[in-house]
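Batch manifest, entry 17 of 40.
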Amino acid sequence: MQIKKIKLQNYRNYDNFEIDLGQNLNIIIGNNAQGKTNLLESIYVLAVTKSFLSINDKGLIKFNNKFAKISGEITNNLSRNNKLEIIFSDKGKVVKVNGKEIKKLSDYISIVNVIIFSTDNIRIFKESPNSRRKYFNIEISQINKNYLKYLSEYNILLKQRNEFLKVMNINKKSDLDYLDILNDKYVDLSIEISNYRKRYVDDINEYLSDMFKYITGMDGLILKYHTNIDEDKSVFKEKLISNLNKELIYKMTLIGPNRDDFYFKLDDKNLSLYGSQGQMRSAVLALKLSEVKLFNDKTGDSPILLLDDIFSELDIEKRNNLLSTLSNNVQTVITTTDMENITEDIRKKANVYEIDDGNIISIQKNNEDGEVNGK
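Output type: structure tokens
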């Protein structure tokens, strides 16, 4: 999978911007606050319709403008080309594929798959469980369309159930009957979502320990999934019933996928609580590289790998080892403030774009892309 071209209009610090990317390694270089991360973010947004940063859609529109537009040309291993477009405005967002508006996001997400590593990813594993659920919801949705559909249905049902708990009369038979109907559907959707999450974590763990060992030399890292959902429908429904009085006090649903969590475990310890910053950084990077392999296995095509300022997160040996082992089948886009300590062999493989104030001021392409030192 590859993004060949991306165009930006009124996006963040970009007015009108266009870039053609190479099929392998692309390095975006520039000083801080010039638009490197914004460019990387736009590729991610084009794929999953939302930013990986803590920002709402309106924040993507350049100041004093009424809309922002991202468009891109995508190709996959079947030589199938798609032109994608997403427009943000006060009216919301519109997504299009080959000029046709797509009404359901579940029909759009997964057309292009992206994996991103940024400092925000490390923060997610230090913050609330809700942040981690959002992260894994996006990752799972990219390779499982049905998961996104189940999740959308679940969120609607969860809202209905919570609203009903606020007004429910436990002594009224009609209220109990209605809650029973909600519970049946809630149990079914919860188990479906939980099963998808379990399978995803199991699949990731097929690669995670080896990736972590490659990066750190340490054995034993695993991703853990914590849930209070029982696979037996009758048992899980009984939990809902027995928990009703407590839920009426809090006026919200207290068990289900909305309470799940994910965490790294190393040497029988929760890495978020007991690991160093360096170990956490390496664990997240190992997760990203594992996701690249998993996405390839599940879809038959490699995702686009986005690495935001990764050079500042790794020592010289690790960064060069990482770059030298990236498969030529994985299109990779990296941002950095300098090219120091990157080996000449790696530079020859890369297309290098220098960004200044939202503009490309120089381009150096590798031999495989047909141009050298072009400007």
